[in-house]
Write a structure and sequence with these properties.
Length: about 325
Amino acid sequence: MKCLRLAFAGFRHAHIFDLYQRALAHPDIVVTGAWENDPGNSLLPGRDLVLSHSNYEELLASCDAVAIGDCYGRRGPLVIQALRAGKHVIADKPLCTSLEEWKEIADLASEKSLRIGLMLDMRDHGNLIALRDLTASSRIGEVQTISFSAQHPLLRDKRPSWYFEEGMHGGTLNDIAIHVIDLIPWVTGLDIAKVDAARTWNAKAADARHFKDCGQLLLRLSNDGGVLGDVSYLAPDQCGYAVDNYWRITIHGTRGFAETSYNRVGITFADNTMAQTEVLPPAPGRPGGYLEDFLSDVAGAPCENGLDTRACLRATRQALELESNARETGIL
């Protein structure tokens, strides 16, 4: 296919730099420019990245697709403007922070036959690819329960200040739980059928009481199984991304269980016939697979890991519904 002309809008979260570097190195992408609404408050100072456009409209005129890494609360309007201009969109998660924005995005993408991509890179992790393969093999039987711990460090003094501004973050469940909402159907083949319970509350960010830094959820699967998870910002600040329970996922089925985490090497597994657990090796990882899936989707080809527009919009809607459920129910 011809090279995709990709422009970048917003550098307010560090995730977007992974996409930027991959795009620069990709033989099928030409980076046409970069724009930032507020360079002084962005993550650009000290980085070797030059802004090329003074406004968003000019940036959109230069490209076929736009990559969006602005503050969460500003992403929805930027996505909508890009779609209205006939541009494909790839973004860091979350794509937007309200169901109203989601509906307009979904309608525009469908109406204009445009593609949406998200940086849901956990599908590209070797442990999780291996977990998916194991589940598909039926060695643990039919999945019945999933529990996960995805606690993050709050890093109150290091995170961008916009995180703690009202209306900018959009909610801890929408921010973090979207990963597992995307992973569950991909790993197990089961849909998320219902939110049975969801709760968010403030515990650690004492100077920003509106920021609900703790989040827990209870979901029901399409086979009536259950999911129990925690996505709070309570992990230790210094080592929170390195602990074993960072994205630890445990699956129990009717014949056995499997467990892994982001920082482990391999899958801990046992079935009903085994006297002790064994560790299965990870599958080959797929670094940057989210970008390859986006390029395939734009080209009208099958996505290797299935992260197409439909999957991205589904995960976004379900994460927003989960966040909305937590806000409506409050403390349970």
